[in-house]
Specification:
mainly beta, OB fold (Dihydrolipoamide Acetyltransferase, E2P), single chain, five-stranded antiparallel β-sheet
Length: 109
């Protein structure tokens, strides 16, 4: 971890990871839960390459082997024309579902 900041007032934490670090978001959510809070979502700011595997869109995070499976929706569908290109994204992982997936909120090249 490169940096972290927690606010009880906003009930949020900001964690910045070292470049190249693969993050286990499930473990991160469990750590929050075990501290007595509920990790309902994790907001992510990342840069990566748009890829497709098995018909599903992924973001391969630059500088690491981490991939984020994208939830299939209108916003993610816009990325199909950007396969192989590097983009910056903002999105979130929601943990109220069985398998969390990355919900894209915005992107730019």
């Amino acid at each position: 971890m490169a940096d972290s900041n927690t606010s009880l007032e906003t009930q949020s934490s900001t964690v910045t990871f070292k470049k190249g670090k693969v993050i286990d978001f499930g473990k991160l959510a469990k750590a929050v839960d075990s501290a007595g809070f509920k990790a309902s979502e994790i907001k992510i700011w990342a840069r990566g390459i748009v890829e497709q595997a098995g018909g599903k869109l992924l973001l391969k995070v630059s500088g690491s082997n981490q991939t984020l499976p994208l939830t299939e929706d209108e916003q993610a569908a816009k990325l199909k024309g950007l396969l192989g290109k590097e983009i910056r994204v903002v999105g979130k992982l929601e943990f109220d579902k069985t398998l969390p997936s990355f919900i894209l909120e915005s992107f730019e090249m």
